[in-house]
Specification:
72% of the residues lie in helices and 0% in strands. The termini are far apart. The protein has a single domain, classed as Up-down Bundle (AhpD-like), CATH 1.20.1290. By secondary structure, the chain is an all-alpha fold.
């Protein structure tokens, strides 16, 4: 879909995100994995899980990342519901 020029620009940007000045490799992989899960990108999640295995990231560490992504997603849905109730004047107290 992207022109060759735009694809090259994207590839350069993407590769630059792996050249960290502040994050160590393990932290980078855990952040990347959480972002992939949060964005629902199955190919990215698979890639970062495989990279995590190569870097000896534990099942427990992956579980904690998953739990954090789940907590943020649940919080977002709660806030989304609150916004709808408020914006549309829905009185949930009237529900039995």
């Amino acid at each position: 879909m992207l022109t060759k020029h735009h694809q090259e620009l994207y590839n350069t940007f993407y590769e630059s995100t792996h050249q960290n000045e502040y994050l160590d490799k393990k932290t980078e992989l855990l952040v990347s994995l959480s972002a992939a899960m949060a964005m629902n990108c199955a190919p990215c999640t698979e890639y970062y899980l495989k990279q995590a295995k190569k870097e000896n990231i534990s099942k427990g560490e992956i579980s904690e990342v998953l739990a954090k992504v789940m907590a943020v997603a649940a919080g977002q849905k709660r806030l989304q519901m609150q916004e709808v109730v408020k914006n549309y004047g829905i009185d949930l107290e009237a529900y039995e």
